[in-house]
Amino acid sequence: MRSCEMISSYLDGRLETAGAHEFEEHMRDCAECASAVEAWRDIENRLVEASKSEKSFPDPSAHEALRLVQRAELRKKSYFSQPHFWAVRVTVAALIIIAGALGVFTGRLMNPPAPVDPASASAGSVDDTLTYRTDSNSRTTVRLASDTIGLGPSSSILVTASGPTVRLVLQEGSVACEVSRRTAGESFSVETPDFTVEVIGTRFLVDLDGAGEQAKVIVSEGKVNVRGAKIGKHSLVAGQVLDIDSVLEVRLADNEDLIALNDLLPEASSSQPLAVPADESPRPDAGEFTGIGSAGSRNDVAMEVAGATPDSHETIDSELSSISKWREWVIEGRLDEARFALRDHLVKNPADANAWSLLADCERKRSNWAQAVVAYDKLVALSKGERANRARFKAASIIQDRLGDHEGAVRALEQFLSQGGSGTLLEARAKVRLAGSLMALNRSERAREYLLWVVDKSNDAAMISKARRMLEQLEQK
Amino acid sequence: MSGEEPDDERLMAVLATGEMYPLAKLYMRYGAMVKEAIRRFAPEISIAEAEEVGQDVFLALAQSAGRYRKNGVFKSWLFGIAVNKARRWRRSTWVRRNLLERHHKDPVGIFAVKGSTPDIDMETRDELRHAFKMLPAAQREVLVLHAVDGFTGEEIAQILGIKPNTVWTRLHRARKTMLQLFKKEEVAAILCKEGS
To answer: CA A148 → CA A202, A242, B169, distances in Å?
Structure first.
């Protein structure tokens, strides 16, 4: 009888092996228990079978997974209550930024080109010039013969197409382009008042804030060249972003960048196939390659992010140096792994400037500000010229903005100026920052000297007007 | 080396830093499984609603990643969220059906279980599903987690936030109810000899 009481434990799977054996022995003699177990197993099996055979949901695709990530991002940034937080961010930036860096630009804004009905656009006919504008709530997609152009909110663009040669003039806002491969003599370029982006079969986004001080170029496929009088020439490959901001910086695309780009080219996964055949798309040099593969479908970004293309991953990977692989990890958000690998690597190779640079990136992404500053310091010690200068400036900016250490910021910025930062594009910015920290420390005289220098000597209009305002504040004190 | 997929624990660790990309991998790995589980926890839910609730589970996962501790199995943590989301859906539906739309009241819905025992033909799957629907929610949760999803008693206790003994009691009751629904009273009686 005692054995009969074990039936529930037996069905629960709670009995040890010996106990289970004992009960099974018991079932040979006890028809009641045997039939009860059989009856229950029958129901249970039907239940399991019914559940297993009823597959109502396919595995989510990479695209769906990315959409969920976007929703999670939105929830994280819930203070941007509107669904297009990215658009909001651009607008906010437009309010903060001071006009002036681009004088030409202001002139153009005064006489905006008349709106033209996009429907009247005829694709790629000879010497068509059309203007497209969007207001703050809208966005639009323009299709030329073999190229797709997505226009963000509050944007205006002038399109001149002459056969396969297409010239876009971005006057404000942002534009994302998916461009078919160009051969010699054909070109696709996006011009802004400050720089020109030239394209050879690629997918990328150019984003100007409202007043034109900040801009960025995001590349998700292929390769582009960015040229401008003030910024020099830069080559960008897939996965890279050029930030034209207080610091001119080529960095890795983060998920916000990719969301921004995908936002403007929404049909990427469903419309006509990419004009660049996968095997012909430009292959970046191993040295500068930074991750997201240029080979593959248009939906590369989403696919790569979700790890759905392990095959292409591996083939590319075998040819890449470890640094490039870790860059990929950083892009994928595998920050902890990348940090671990980088620190491990740096123990053995403490003089690898590229690794320190990537580690600094990684720490900054994780908001480990102090660690990021340490990494930038190492980078400064290991490099020279422009690279060292930029690292010094970035470290100083973090010390000032993120760590709130004004003493430290003053030291770092003065060092930046004395070690080669003078005479560079960043000089005026460094001096305005210095003045800011000096004012916070109540050292008004020194602050005034720096501000007066900026007003008198600099030709950076944005910094001049900022310096003027800070001088006014000093006077009021 | 890089072809190797990061495991759940690593993805959760990165997710906890506020980086949302790992969510994509976890969703692709477990999305379908979670949605199926939600349909079992709340059999009245429509496919579209289960899809929506399933996505909610992962959004909640992202938000709770900071609290995740590697003390159990990741899947238990995920199913714990899924059970809660399914319960919330049931509650909202209950309010809608019973308070707002009284005239639509379903006589054999899960809310009308106690007492009536309509005939069930064991032969068709529809009937099985029907019996399953009539099981009280607490018993149904334990039953599917044990029989279908294959969790251990300790894991179920963790998922539901109850004591292991409560898990066994509910499982025992679930068996009894199911056997009664299938008109196997005598078998149910054998199970009950044990007491409880």
So the answer is: 11, 21, 62
How many Cβ atoms sit within 10 Å of the Cβ of residue A321? 12
pLDDT bucket at B118, cuts 50 / 70 / 90: very low
Residue with tokens 């005026």: A428
Half-sphere exposure of A230 (CA within 13 A, CB side): 18
The 3-state DSSP class for residue A142 equals strand
Cβ-nearest to B35 among A35, A57, A329: A57
Q: Please state, in angstroms and rounded to a whole number, the distance separating the CA atoms of residues A214 and A257.
A: 15
Specify the DSSP element, H or E, that contains A122: none
Stretch 168-187 of chain A: residues touching chain B, C-beta under 8 Å = none
CA-CA distances (angstroms) from residue A46 to A421, B53, B125, B131?
Answer: 76, 26, 8, 12
- Residue B115, SS3 per DSSP: coil
Is A36's CB within 8 Å of B144's CB?
A: no
Q: Tell me the backbone φ, ψ of residue B123, rounded to 5 degrees.
A: -70, -35
CA distance, residue A286 to nearest chain B CA (Å): 17
Q: Which amino acid is at A94?
A: A
What stretches of A146-210 adopt beta strand conformation (E)? 148-151, 156-162, 165-172, 174-178, 188-191, 196-208
* Chain B contact for A75 (CB, 8 A cutoff): yes
For residue A44, what is the nearest residue in chain B, using CA coordinates?
Answer: B147
Q: pLDDT tens digits, residue range A375-407? A: 898 898 888 888 888 889 989 999 888 888 899
Q: Which helix (H) or strand (E) holds A141?
A: strand A140-143
Give every CB contact of residue B181 below 8 A, 6+ residues apart in sequence: B117, B120, B131, B134, B135
Query: Distance between CA A385 and CA A419 in Å, rounded?
Result: 9
Average pLDDT, chain B: 79
pLDDT for B174 equals: 92
Distance CA A176, CA A155 (A): 11
3-state class (DSSP) for residue A351: coil
Q: Report the length, in residues, of chain B.
A: 196
Distance (Å, whole) CA B168 – CA B184: 21
pLDDT, tens only, B12-60: 887 887 777 788 889 999 999 999 999 989 988 889 999 999 999 999 9
* pLDDT tens-digit series, residues A16-65: 888 889 988 898 888 888 888 988 898 888 888 888 777 788 888 887 88
How far, CA to CA in Å, does A332 sit from each of A301, B115, B120, B139? Answer: 10, 56, 52, 41
